[in-house]
Design goal:
CATH superfamily: HesB-like domain
Number of strands: 9
Strand order of the largest sheet: 4-5-2-3-9-8
Structural class: alpha+beta
CATH topology: Hypothetical Protein Aq_1857, Chain: A
Radius of gyration: 13 Å
Largest sheet: 6 strands, mixed
Number of domains: 1
Order of helices and strands: EHEEEEHEEEE
Distance between the termini: 21 Å
CATH architecture: Sandwich
Helix content: 10-25%
Strand content: 35-45%
CATH class: Mainly Beta
Amino acid sequence: MPKGHSLRITAAAAAELGRQAAVAGTPGMMHLDLIEGGCERWSIRLRPGHRSGVPVARADGVTVYAPHQQTVLLGGLSLDYRGDLSGGGFLMRTPEGLRSCACGAAFGPAHGAGSVNQ
């Protein structure tokens, strides 16, 4: 996981990832992949466990894995978590050149279209 080229995880996201991984019986391991569609080009999907892929981020004892071919799309992104009385959810914070949708769980190129190999 070279610095600056991998996914960043906020403290709030790390805490929730750790909680979800522990509840699922896979402490310290979560899998993130990008699925096409939704309100922007790519939406995030988080699941407990290692599944397959390479580590793309580590924070507070939790390692997040993603498919190797998607790592380039995750570089520079930041995963955050916001919770309130009505629930909570993970949000993607995007760098310049990308835009995120209002829900925060999807992002896409600011101009033009890109693709991702699944």
